[in-house]
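Residues determine shape. Next comes a sample protein:
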Amino acid sequence: MTEAPLELTVDELAARVGTTVRNIRAYQDKGLLPAPERRGRAAIYSDVHLFRLRLVHQLLGRGYTLASIGEILDAWEQGQDLAALMGLEQAISSPFSSEVATHLTLPQVIERFGATAPSALSKAVALGFLEPEGDGFRAPSPRLLHAGEELVQAGVPLEALLDEAAELRTDVERVASGFVELVAKHVFDVAGRVPPAEEVPRLAAIVRRLRPLAVMVVEAELARALERAAHEALDARLAHVLDAIEPEPD
């Protein structure tokens, strides 16, 4: 199944990129953004507008003037490479997770995790596992929520679990940064140069493969590390349990 075409209002487009409606109007006046589709009185913006607006912001951040940006966009369009560049930008900016966030009320949080201390709730919010929303909380990752719930039900204190999650996040972010930098250094910046435009489609395909490849590497290494840690931490405890079992008389 193909995804439905992206359709945004001007306010939604501005929010996606972190700019203002006034800036969008100014970029349109200077020809940096194409005119939106008109449906009656409504102006509809597409993924093309989103891509170009992101590109304009990136170039502005690098010190380019609006006039220079216009020349760059014209050159890409004349070379018919703008679509390829758009594919690369979409591959980079698209979410790596396909999870759909869920909403929980405070009673539902308590039901799943027990009587929750305010400090634990604050810690969960600070870590981004829960985000205040309306009368409750938005949980961006239901899978993490489910895993935490099972660990708490198994007897792991919630605050201790959150402390460990904070440590884990630091380690995971270091691993992710190293993996991405490996690809950036040896695939994107070959021989100290930025790849030419004709290599853009190949790079977009590599970025799309980055997520499953990284997950494979991390899962394999995590399985190995868990096996070693389980033996080290649990074997001795199992031995004590077995020693405590008295043999039945013959």
About this structure: The radius of gyration is 25 Å. DSSP finds ten helices and five strands in the chain. Residues 200-244 form the longest helix (45 residues). The beta strands are 37-39, 42-44, 102-105, 131-133, 136-139.
